[in-house]
Specification:
The complex is a heterodimer of chains A (478) and B (64). Chain A is an alpha/beta fold and 478 residues long. Chain A contains 15 helices and 15 strands. Chain A has a single domain (3-475), classed as Alpha-Beta Complex (Amidase signature (AS) enzymes), CATH 3.90.1300. Chain A has helices at 3-7, 11-19, 25-43, 51-66, 109-116, 159-166, 183-189, 223-233, 277-292, 311-330, 336-343, 350-373, 416-421, 450-461, 472-475; strands spanning 46-49, 78-82, 120-125, 137-138, 142-143, 172-177, 192-195, 215-220, 263-267, 296-300, 376-380, 393-396, 399-402, 425-432, 438-444.
Amino acid sequence: MANTELLTMTIAELAPKIRARQVSPVELTEAALAQAERLQPTLQSFITLLHESARQQAREQEAALMRGEYRGPLHGIPIGIKDNIATAGIRTTVGSKVLANHVPQEDAEVVRRCKAAGAIIVGKENLEEFAAGATSTNPHYGAVHNPWALDRIPGGSSGGSGANVAACVTFASLGTDLGGSVRLPGTFCGVVGLKQTFGRVSQRGLMVTSFNGDHIGPLTRSVHDSALMLQAIAGYDPLDPSTVPVPVPDYTAALGQALRGLKLGFPTNHYFEVLDPEVEAAVRQAISALQGLGMDLREVALPTMQYIGAVRIAGMADSLVTHEPFLAEHRQEYGPDVLYRTLAGQFVLGRDYSKALKVQRLIKEEHARVLQDVDVLVTPTAPIAAPPIGAATFTLGGTEHRVRGPGSATISRNTSPSNATGLPAITVPCGFTAAGLPIGLQLIGRPFEEALLFQIAHAYEAVSPSKGRRPPLALAAS
Amino acid sequence: MAIQTETLKAILRDYHGFVLSDEEFERIRPELDSYMREVEKLQELDLSQVLSSRLLRAQEGGPA
């Protein structure tokens, strides 16, 4: 099978071929590594490529297959890991100069689970410095470029992961999401990004993170693949008390089931208030498509969302505390965007931190109430399509908004609420701007109801104008 | 509402914070301005009766 044909397949398409030994893990891994080598100078999507260990893992997975030991749909599948997720014996920089030579002793729990499921790790992926921003323009490891338009950001902070999945380098990547850092690369790169319920997936091994609301989640080329990835990483981790001991269902079981009668909640405030007209048009078209699939559209109000910005106050203080030891010893090694965002946190009063947590609770309550009346909420994932690399600001409705560094929060205004609530949210591609930049639709569900999100997103994906589209750069001869 | 730079310098001095130059105070100012805007909005909000705890619900033993 030609490399391009192999590389553009989904995990769900490849898995039966690997199981039937029509596609070899070694062959597949060599194709992924070749694609990574070809595109790394253009995309700068990796910090560390793992040629030798990937080849070794591929040989081991192939040998297991030959022995009749099939480990499931991820068996022999090349994936990427964002470089703030610990990998034993492999340096994990968190996109920083401070940790440029840090080599963890243990795999993160999600890495352990992916390896146990037979996945092959081809590299550690580039990201925003310390995963603290939405651009993935890293001052130490280079700017990650968007495969759909190389002058554009891929989103962040999991930008290398989004770019790799879109460019058919990896079949899936694990990113992390504290304010939208999986879903923003998902929308900007035209792939599927999932932030599951807080507590569904272990955070153990997620480095330099926040006390409140971080998640490890998959970026994939299809909703089905997202379900397969969650299946592999979900579950209680006795060593991570934030995980919840509830059963892990079969996430693919509801794929293909009809949507008739399900209620789609359309928020009348916040999520559609600051929005590029092209994004709004694509999302409204997607909502019509969901209605066409049988969903019942209902307007819902979320008045407490006017205070959502307060939750960021807690994030400021958390970030300062997380970085305190590094700032004390390595302040000069920080890039300015992260440094000055972080240093502002030392002025947050305890009173305001407490208020932020109470606002967070109010917003959780309100979402819980609304989701008694509707099955999911539908929103644009981001207010704009990918801005140019290096842009300091963008303008919407005559107002200038910062893209990066201190004071930048507009890009994540639709994604960060689900980090505050802990609710599961998925972005699925829903078309393109006139300039050819991907647009994403976000669905937000009830706690631990990822299977319903997959069912709806999967049905929409089949009728989306993005269906089957790949960036031309991914398809060039490899 | 904006906090005077002199006040901020005093906080850093008395609370052993990370010292900032005048130029660095300008760099963090957008983040502080955003913080103060949110604090002002909260003035009108009564948070005295807000309950604690996480609010996630899961069906015990059922489809998770």
